Amino acid sequence: MLSFARHRAVLAVSALALAAHPALAQDESAAEALIGEVAEAMGGAERLEGLQNLVMTGFGQRVYQNGGGFLTGEAHVPAKWQSVSDAQRSFDLAGGQALNQERRAYQFPFAGEFGLNWARTNELQTGNAMLDHPLTAVLAALDEGTALGPVTVDDGLSIVSFTPEGGAPMWMAVNPADDLPAWVRYTGPSATLGEVAHTVYFTGYLPFDGIMLPTGIQSEMDWRDQVELMFQVDSYRIDVPAEQMPAFPEPAVTASGGEAAPVQVDVTEVATGVWDLRVPGRFGGAGGAVIEMADHLVMFEAYGSEADTLARIDAANELVPGKEVTQVIVSHHHFDHTGGLRAAVSRGLQVIAERGNREIFEEMVSRPAPNFPDAQAVAMAPLDFLPVDGELVLEDELRRVEIYHTLGHLHMADGVFAYLPEEQVLMEGDFSDVTWQFHFWAGGMATNVAEYGLDPAINMPVHGEVTSYEEAQARISELVTGAQDFCARTREAGIYQNGCPVQFDAAGTLPLASE
Asked: Global pTM?
């Protein structure tokens, strides 16, 4: 339980403890004094700790894939955003939980209505996940179970560290001009970046029923100073009657023992010495090819997560006695397609990708993760990068693998795909997906096949399932029609969606004039 007594007096410490640990006592005293001043400025600790709930509404924007889903991996590439509306965050302060509800729509072409139809999300938050607001952060700092750290000064702000009971360390910066929180900072794990520090800034404080609360909230990452969330509050309601609070879902149940279930990998032989290794799940599964060479194996894509990628590597290493995966072809930098990049590098795999990805790949694999260690945080293996400049051929006495820079596909400018000329197998990421509803980049596959003079019979996508090349092209044609229909419906509603009108059909030519 939160305790008002925490802020009212300096922690009682015996003379013996003070003598033995004077710095610790000073840290506790300074931190408690600062937290007490902040609580007083926000409305008084007794009032804050007596609150039952808080409901915040507003609107804003979220960045797509934490900044890892842009056209290229370059530092100054235009960002992709998700608009956020009908947003409500309900803090059950007495119960120690929050419910974040909001409608999102991608402000760029996407593969289906599931990214564009303003469906409302419901996310239950507990522990440190609900402490990115000054009210909850201050209440956590006042709690008797919270360990307070030293107070420092940086850029004119007083900064106090604190660790909630059972949680990870956090930091709060206080503006001495008004004693109100300027920001809070916390760290969290990241599949692509290892570990990320998130700093949430608070601006535009106004009184709401006697409580000082921010009306501007902006969250940034310590990777490229990427803005994650820009949010403007349009209302606060304090101590809302219970019948007006939303229903909170039950917390997810963690499996006993705390160990994740083993990852299932479905292995299908596509041609002699060529297999599809796929992890079933969202969007019909994701994976890609494993190709046998004379003395090693080559894997296509490090998709999804560390667990998925290590499972695919381990399954591949069982395919041919004496041969293991030593190279991975990465189609493009998007964070879903590189969710296992750190894992692959930790195993010593050479990474093959379009040259423009080197910088972002170096950033991704070189970041430490001391609080949330993954395989790469332990190994800290260097990036062995083999660039593709236009095209690259891997060839030995057993097989020829051709790797080409993706052209005319404006979902990603620094992409590659691979082709096995003898087996007539095309390997690609985001050219096609049987589970998509729309295709705004439909000409990408046909354009590259024609440009490089290829003759594929089989298509092996990262998303979806292996099909014939003709089936993949037929499905893309259907998705063009789906995108055109979507554009027509939204235009009739007075909404001019990004990506509309559709520019190309499945053959890479302009669509019908009716579009």
From this structure: 0.90
